[in-house]
Amino acid sequence: MADHFPPNINMEVPSAARMYDYLLGGKDNFEVDRKACDVLLERVPEILPLANDNRAYLARAAEYAAAQGLEQFLDLGAGLPTANNTHHAAQRANPRARVVYVDNDPIVLAHGRALITNSGETAFLLADLRDTEEIFSAPETRRLIDRDMPTALMLVALLHCLPDSDDPFGLVRPIIDSLPSGSCLIYSHMVSDDPATREWVTDRVLSYGTPWGRVRSPEEAAVIFEGLDLVSPWNDGRDEGPRLVDCATWRHPDRNPAVRPADPNVKLWEMAGVAFKP
Ligand SMILES: C[S@@+](CC[C@H](N)C(=O)[O-])C[C@H]1O[C@@H](n2cnc3c(N)ncnc32)[C@H](O)[C@@H]1O
User: Fold this and answer.
1) Residue among 221, 220, 246, 255 at smallest CA distance from 46
2) Using a 6 Å cutoff on CB, does residue 105 contact ligand 1?
3) What is the domain-level CATH number for residue 204?
């Protein structure tokens, strides 16, 4: 498989994008990524459904946002392409939806450009969330994102990849502030209400040398929604109960929204919410 990859890809250290790809059943990963995941799976097997539920949430949320009238999507930390990518989901609701995919892992760019050929409505950008200026000044972004128009900002399973020393929530605040009214945030973050699980998973991933952040508590991960209006997580839009929920249940056709997995043995989940800017 190694011959399919450009030379700037580090095959010795697991990467978040490739580990996630492995959990999703993809093929764009190496032995080192698979071994790293297998160690995690022994202690927190829920990480497997977590990854798959998160990816399904991403598609439901992108389709929902497009159905609400959003035409342009900035998908930060986009990950490796899979069968149901943001533009597939968004274009189901609005064929004119445009997506800029951004990721800082070169493997994502290599596979993204190969698999999602630019149709005029999508573009791939190799850039880092920590360099907002580069993201917004890139020709791809300028071509597809009109900064005066409402934008769907997607931060799905991204901010737990950034350590506190990068101030992830402070980093994205100016981006949110710069978006016009009617823009929306599509968000998820790996969380646990158990300090021991937070610490174990964080230490384990960092021990691989993988650039990563940490598992946060649901309260810590929720601060991003300050000043935004969270939408109902119910599939029928009813105004009932909490709006920040386990991604597996957000606007799921057959599941009621729940703030955490029902099984108390499940300690790790992806907290999700979609919010509009007033
Ligand atoms: C867990 S994956 C999530 C992929 C996709 N958003 C999803 O939820 O299906 C996290 C992605 O964020 C990317 N990433 C991590 N840190 C980043 C950064 N500082 N800037 C841009 N992308 C980053 C990783 O390379 C990886 O592809």
Assistant:
1) 246
2) yes
3) 3.40.50.150
pTM of the model: 0.97
Residue 42: other Cβ atoms inside 10 A: 8
Segments forming the whole domain that contains residue 36: 2-276
Q: pLDDT tens digits, residue range 161-211?
A: 999 999 999 999 999 999 999 999 999 999 999 999 999 999 999 999 999
Contact 232, 215 (CB under 8 A): no
Which protein residue has the closest C-alpha to ligand 1 atom 1?
157
Q: What is the pLDDT of residues 219-236, one digit of tens each?
A: 999 999 999 999 999 999
Q: What's the 182 CA to ligand 1 centre distance in angstroms? A: 25
CB of 37 closer than 6 angstroms to any ligand 1 atom: no
Domain count, the chain: 1
